[in-house]
Structures are given as C-alpha cells and as structure tokens.
C-alpha cells in the first residue's frame, strides 16, 4: 500500500512537494520510481510516481479521485484537557472521522489553548488523517465561548454528554450535521445545561474530557 503524503496545492500533471513532505519521503526511505498517494485534506486524493529528489521532491500524478464527506458530519465542541492529553484527543477524534473540532470555553474551563497549540493540533490532524487514510482533514477552529457558539447553531442536531442523559440505545441521528458537546472536568454550569439539546449518558463512571470525547464520537459513528 503506497505511503500517503499531504499536498495542499492543485493536482496537476507534475507537482512539487513541500520541504516537510520531502523530508517525510526520505524518512520513509522512498526513492525515485516509487508510488505514493497524495491528499489535500479537502477530499482530493491522487496516486503518483516519485520522479526526482532534491530540496523538494517531484511527483508525476497518474490518477486522481474526489471523495465526498461522510454524512452526517460530526462536529466536536469540547473543553480542552491539560498537556498531552489534548494532543491525544485531537489525534483520535481525527481517526474517528470528525469534520471539525472547536475548543470550547465553559464557565469551569481550565485550559484556553494558545495559537501555538492550535497550530500543533493542525499538524497532528494532518498526520493522523494520512495515517488512517482519510481524504479529509478536520478543521481545527479557534476557541469559542460556549454561549457565543450556541448563537451560530442553525439546523444542526445538538447532543450534550451528561451523566443525567438518555441511554445510547435511545439516541437517533436525524440531521446532516451533529454537534457533540463535551464539557470541562469541573462539569457544566447550570445555565449551560439550559439549552435545546439531547443529553447523552456515556458511562456510569465520570470520564475525563478526552475519554468522553472519544467514547462519544465512537458511539455516534457506530450509528452511521
């Protein structure tokens, strides 16, 4: 199976990879004549042949294909855990097929990610998409206040994970876009629970943020 590399440009007859992806090619010990897959994170995937190594490798495109986003889309609104646990959350949510991750600021949130963290998560999501053969890379959005985010909701189905929610067996997905809401480890403020959203119970136990996010996304994916 060909190695998959990220390429953000147009798939012309011949393309030049970025310096980073060229280094990646070399790390994989690929050489001229080897077949690779390129993807742009927007649904376009191409197969090509490595023709030249230099500061930027040259790849001749053999065939290209356009994929559609899986429906319903799962958009993850999540509080952010501390340290490397947040990296793990982004990586695994990407593997499970979320279309967008929005770091959410609740009343009891502890972590507000800086721009450097967001850039790191974007790189992690690209790498995870390449590894799991996704055609799409999830969007990593800027942090939003929870109340502000609610004002942007239109026709999406809101599902909030909470200990007092309904059992998974009672859940039905009925929209093209699903917003899954994961709160902070300090819990939701009472006013934050006062919204028109289905509440889903994930476990009898109290889960960490990253565990709740992955369990929640995994359960929704199992319904598709």
Secondary structure layout plus pairing:
Elements: E1 3-6, E2 14-16, H1 19-27, E3 35-39, E4 44-52, E5 58-66, E6 73-78, H2 84-95, E7 100-105, H3 115-131, E8 139-140, E9 144-145, H4 146-150, E10 157-166, E11 177-182, E12 198-200, H5 209-222
Parallel strand pairs: 1-3, 6-7, 6-11, 7-8, 7-9, 10-11, 10-12
Antiparallel strand pairs: 2-5, 3-4, 4-5
List keywords for this structure.
single chain, 224 residues, alpha/beta, Ribosomal Protein L25, Chain P, Alpha/beta knot, five-stranded mixed beta sheet, 5 helices, 12 strands, 25% helix
Helical coverage, percent range: 25-40%
- Overall tally of structural domains: 2
* Number of discrete helical segments: 5
Write down the secondary-structure element order.
EEHEEEEHEHEEHEEEH
Number of strands: 12
**What proportion strand?**
25-35%
**Judging by the overall fold, what is the CATH architecture of the largest domain?**
3-Layer(aba) Sandwich
CATH class of the largest domain: Alpha Beta
End-to-end distance, in Å? 27 Å
Overall mean pLDDT stands at: 94
CATH superfamily of the largest domain: SPOUT methyltransferase, trefoil knot domain
Rounded to an integer in angstroms, the radius of gyration calculated over CA atoms is: 20 Å
What coarse outline follows from CA principal-axis ratios?
elongated
What composes the largest sheet? 7 strands, parallel
| Contiguous uncertain segments of 5+ residues | none
Derived from helix and strand composition plus strand pairing, the structural class reads alpha/beta
**The CATH topology of the largest domain is what?**
Alpha/beta knot
């Amino acid at each position: 199976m060909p190695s998959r590399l990220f390429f953000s440009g147009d798939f012309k007859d011949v393309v030049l990879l970025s310096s980073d992806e060229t280094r990646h090619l070399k790390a994989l010990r690929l050489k001229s004549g080897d077949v690779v897959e390129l993807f742009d994170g927007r649904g376009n995937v191409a197969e090509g042949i490595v023709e030249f190594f230099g500061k930027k490798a040259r790849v001749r495109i053999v065939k290209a294909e356009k994929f559609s986003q899986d429906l319903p889309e799962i958009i993850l609104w999540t509080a952010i855990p501390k340290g490397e646990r947040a990296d793990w959350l982004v990586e695994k949510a990407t593997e499970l097929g979320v279309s967008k991750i929005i770091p959410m600021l609740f009343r009891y949130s502890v972590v507000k990610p800086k721009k450097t963290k967001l850039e790191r998560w974007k790189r992690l999501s690209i790498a995870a998409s390449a590894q799991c053969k996704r055609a799409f890379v999830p969007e990593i959005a800027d942090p939003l206040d929870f109340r502000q985010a609610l004002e942007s909701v239109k026709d999406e189905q809101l599902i909030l994970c909470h200990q007092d929610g309904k059992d998974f067996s009672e859940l039905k997905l009925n929209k093209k876009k699903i917003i899954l809401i994961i709160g902070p480890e300090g819990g939701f403020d009472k006013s934050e629970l006062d919204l028109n959203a289905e509440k889903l119970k994930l476990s009898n136990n109290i889960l960490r943020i990253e565990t709740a996010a992955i369990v929640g996304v995994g359960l929704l994916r199992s319904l598709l």
